[in-house]
Specification:
The protein has three helices and two strands, in the order αββαα. The chain is an all-alpha fold and about 180 residues long. The protein has a domain of about 55 residues.
Length: about 180
């Protein structure tokens, strides 16, 4: 759409302002249509200035627009990823909180079971000690009874032995006299 062959691509911001000034000058130098706000302007000059403006816009502006578009894309992707990460973190947090509660509950239950086991073990020890004391007492009585019987038997045997000795001594005195 270039209408002028001498237009070169400089992309200088000062050149762009110069073209804008020329457009403004063209707009103010046009012929007024009576009873209206409209102007007649030289369309060829207007189109030539527009072409010059198009050529003069630096490639950097187009590149900047592309960078802005890509930035917005990346920002949108990043926001989506951030939302996904946050949701994942919240889910994991809830899971950990649930696990923590489960661990606490398991700890409480373990303590209760441990306490119950200790109490049961103490009861068993108490019963065992009571039974042992009873058996010890019974064993002591039995041993005492057996010792009394043995004492009676030994006394009876001792009495028999003394009687035997006395009989022998008496016989020896009678024969040896």
């Amino acid at each position: 759409m270039l209408r002028h062959n001498k237009i070169t691509r400089k992309g200088n911001i000062i050149e762009i302002f110069g073209i804008i000034d020329k457009l403004e000058s063209l707009a103010t130098s046009g012929i007024r249509v009576p009873m209206s706000k409209k102007l007649f302007v030289d369309s060829e000059t207007l189109l030539e200035l527009v072409d010059q403006l198009r050529v003069s816009i630096p490639q950097d502006i187009s590149t900047a627009n592309e960078v802005i578009r890509k930035r917005e894309e990346l920002l949108n992707q990043s926001l989506g990823e951030a939302k996904r990460i946050r949701a994942s973190a919240e889910t994991e947090f809830r899971s950990k909180v649930g696990e923590t509660e489960l661990v606490k509950e398991a700890g409480k239950e373990a303590k209760a079971i441990s306490k119950e086991a200790e109490e049961r073990a103490q009861q068993i020890l108490d019963v065992a000690e009571t039974q042992a004391a009873t058996k010890r007492t019974s064993a002591d009585r039995y041993a005492q009874e057996q010792l009394y019987k043995l004492e009676e038997e030994v006394n009876r045997l001792l009495s028999t032995v003394r009687n035997g000795i006395e009989v022998l001594e008496a016989q020896q005195k009678v024969s040896g006299q």
